[in-house]
């Protein structure tokens, strides 16, 4: 059986479509309106949720910032207190240092006054005797002990860096002998009456006793200190001790 398909006009199809009644149209309009209202309600609810979430985040951020600020303030307060404590401790140490320096300066002035009223080597003979001839029962002082005692006494002359000048001058004497041991006629003799020597070394307690400790001997007929037989190990030890005292001298 053969069916013949004939083209149909759009107009005829349109005519065949059932037209909606007024009630059906109103129902469709109402349905569309309901869907629109439902979408609006959903968007409004979502917007409200978003607003609540943003408000919670803002409050949490505010709390975090407040907490961070409190922590920052606490750290700053602690740092300020630590700085104040350090400054207070440093001020205390400085006061103690100044008081100690004042006492040393007083002792230095007393020593200078004593040296000015006695002969050049009188204080040294007393000092050397005290070290070299101890009371019975005590061991004799070694040259190393005499050197260190002399250096310690010279290091107490702080005013005008007189002690530092004396130590540096003695270091030059020792270095010259070590570097030029064959020229003892020049570097192995020291004139204690020389004004420059008196100013730099001879007028301070510890200067002449140091020379004796490293081997210099005073000429009984004059003012010369002479080194007859250099002891190289002792001289090198003396050089190290002098350099250490110079490095440690307060500037």
Short key terms for the protein model shown above:
251 residues; mainly alpha; Methane Monooxygenase Hydroxylase, Chain G, domain 1; 2 domains; 3-stranded antiparallel β-sheet; 3 strands
Concise account of the structure shown:
With 251 residues, this protein is mostly helical. It has 2 domains: 23-117; 143-248, Methane Monooxygenase Hydroxylase, Chain G, domain 1 (Up-down Bundle), CATH 1.20.58.2190.
How is the topology of this model organized?
Layout: H1 10-16, H2 22-116, H3 122-132, H4 143-154, H5 162-179, H6 184-187, E1 189-191, H7 195-202, H8 207-213, E2 216-218, E3 224-227, H9 232-248
Antiparallel strand pairs: 1-3, 2-3
Helical element count? 9
- Which blocks of ≥5 consecutive residues have pLDDT under 50? 118-134
Computed CA radius of gyration, to the nearest angstrom: 51 Å
Portion in strands: under 5%
Question: How much is the average pLDDT?
Answer: 81
Q: Sheet bearing the most strands, described?
A: 3 strands, antiparallel
Strand order of the largest sheet: 1-3-2
Q: According to CATH, what is the class of the largest domain?
A: Mainly Alpha
Total domain units: 2
Look at the helices and sheets and give the structural class. Answer: mainly alpha
Task: Give, in order, the helices and strands.
Answer: HHHHHHEHHEEH
**Percent of residues in helical segments?**
over 70%
Amino- and carboxy-terminal Cα gap: 130 Å
Shape: rod-shaped
CATH topology of the largest domain: Methane Monooxygenase Hydroxylase, Chain G, domain 1
CATH architectural type of the largest domain: Up-down Bundle
The count of strands amounts to: 3
């Amino acid at each position: 059986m053969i069916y013949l398909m004939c083209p149909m006009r759009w107009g005829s199809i349109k005519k065949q479509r059932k037209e909606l009644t007024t009630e059906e149209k109103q129902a469709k309009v109402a349905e569309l309106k309901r869907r629109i209202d439902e979408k609006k309600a959903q968007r409004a609810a979502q917007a409200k949720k978003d607003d609540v979430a943003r408000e919670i985040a803002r409050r949490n951020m505010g709390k975090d910032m407040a907490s961070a600020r409190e922590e920052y303030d606490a750290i700053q307060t602690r740092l300020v207190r630590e700085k104040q404590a350090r400054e207070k401790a440093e001020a205390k140490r400085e006061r103690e240092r100044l008081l100690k320096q004042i006492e040393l300066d007083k002792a230095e002035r007393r020593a200078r006054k004593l040296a000015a009223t006695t002969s050049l080597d009188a204080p040294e003979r007393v000092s050397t005797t005290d070290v070299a001839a101890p009371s019975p029962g005590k061991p004799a002082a070694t040259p190393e002990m005499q050197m260190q005692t002399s250096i310690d006494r010279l290091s107490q002359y702080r005013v005008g860096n007189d002690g530092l000048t004396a130590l540096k001058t003695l270091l030059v004497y020792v270095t010259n002998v070590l570097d030029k041991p064959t020229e003892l006629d020049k570097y192995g003799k020291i004139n204690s009456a020389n004004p420059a020597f008196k100013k730099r070394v001879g007028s301070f307690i510890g200067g002449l006793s140091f020379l004796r400790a490293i081997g210099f001997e005073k000429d009984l007929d004059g003012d010369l200190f002479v080194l007859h037989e250099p002891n190289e190990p002792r001289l090198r030890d003396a050089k190290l001790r002098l350099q250490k005292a110079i490095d440690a001298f307060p500037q």
